[in-house]
Amino acid sequence: MLRSVLLDGFRSFEQPTAVRFAPLTILAGPNNAGKSSVIQALLALVQSEQASSGDSLLLSGAWCDLGRFDEVVNASRPLDQRRFAIGVNGETSRGRATDTLWELGPLDDAALTSALIQKIEYSLDKATGNLTREPDRFNWTEELLDIEQQRHTERTGRAFFTHPGLVDLFEHGVLRPPDQPRPPTYRSQKTIHLSPLDASCTQYVGPFRSPPQPLYTPRTSPAGPPLGRYGEHTAEVLFRHRTQRTDIMVPGQPHGDAEAPILPAVNAWWSYIFDGSFALQIDAPARLGFTLAIDTPSAERLWLGQVGLGLSQALPIVTACLVSRPGDLLLIETPEAHLHPAAQHRLMRLFIELARRGRQVVVETHSEHLVTAAQIAVKEGLPPDDVAISFFSQEAGRTVVQEIELSPHGRALRWPPGFFDQAAIDLAELLR
Q1: Torsion-angle region of residue 125: left (phi > 0), alpha (psi -120 to 50) or beta?
Q2: Beta strands in 29-150 (DSSP E)
């Protein structure tokens, strides 16, 4: 579970800026204000893990394309300080509290789409440490404070990276007399997980979803999000998981705790969101690929290009939600695309159900209907601390983030200018 993300010198984040995360996290604000940068920083860490990128952050890959280092670092940084930092705070998949800050710099080859780790500062449970790049190695120092034993321990050694979030540490051992200098030998080794992110527990649905296809080709590489960056593998995921059961409540189901198979659950949520009766049919003809057809009240076996675009655009989102498991992180950009306001409101109900069932949902949006639906959920009993709403804006070209706190009644305690106030401005103009 992520608790916060910090960016410094990353794109439009000129100054260190922290964003609080909760089981349901909403990133809102005008275009080009920095919302997507938060998600893309996380995706860069995830794709670096999946690619085992060693001591570098992979800026472009199967999860996101950020470009070269010079296209990512904030332009205000002097040439001799061309670095940016990404920090994450949360719990690892093993339940250990971690708070890590990566400082990254350019590679010698400026054309490469990676950034080299220069320094890491971390705290992991009771230990605090740092890793620093030297010309031929990474030096490691860690301090452990045992309050109960009133004991302070310091350890030093070398570090070797599998990827930015996974490091093997080799402790220096002094196994020689002080008057006989020789290279130190390693006394012990341990592996630490610096990041709460886990590629195998991350779902991502980007802002651009693939248009409907008569035939969806099989996946040829395991790299990238489970559904593909554009939702292009949705049909395959649904086919392979169609008999898997989900613990997510199905609308209209008499027993909310009973698990349902994925495909009926998708149909139930799809029908609820669009206030109709829709049923997907999935086939894999001759192993050539996968086909999706839909039964509607007026016709059967229609392909998705023959129904409203909103249905096909929402399908990857609903699928990602229902194939997820407790502990998963879902990153969803612009879920409201092509959806009627009422459908947007009902889609937020699905996100809230996921948050209640142990997932973490991060939504980047321009929709006031999604935000209002989250506020209503707080009014109906969702703890305000389970919802984190951050408003992004720009001042003189740099990103500024303000958290919108909610009262137990779901009302915003502070409403900054530009935060979904256009409807009120327009109404005032009409009434003037």
Answers
A1: left
A2: 56-58, 84-91, 97-105, 114-124, 127-134, 137-146
Amino acid residing at 342:
A
The answer to whether 68 and 167 are in contact (CB under 8 A) is no
Cα 404 to its chain centre, rounded Å, is: 20
* Six-digit token string for 301: 């076996």
Global pTM reads 0.92
CA–CA distance, 25 with 390 (Å, rounded to integer)? 8
- For the stretch 387-404, pLDDT in tens is 999 999 999 889 999 999
DSSP string, 34-72: SHHHHHHHHHHHHHHHHHT-TTEEE-BSSS-B---HHHH
Rg (the chain; Cα; Å): 24
Give alpha helix (H) positions in 157-241: 234-241
B/e letters for 316-330, b = 16+ CB within 10 Å, e = fewer, are bbbbbbbbbeeebbb
Single-letter amino acid code for the residue at 357? R
What pLDDT was estimated at residue 300? 84
Rounded distance between C-alpha atoms, residue 83 and residue 206, angstroms: 27
For tokens 């301090």, name the residue: 143
- With 0-12 / 13-18 / 19 or more C-beta atoms within 10 angstroms meaning exposed / middle / buried, residue 363 is buried
Q: What is the torsional sign of CA 236, 262, 303, 202?
A: negative
CA dist 28 and 31 (Å) reads: 9
Amino acid at the residue 349: R
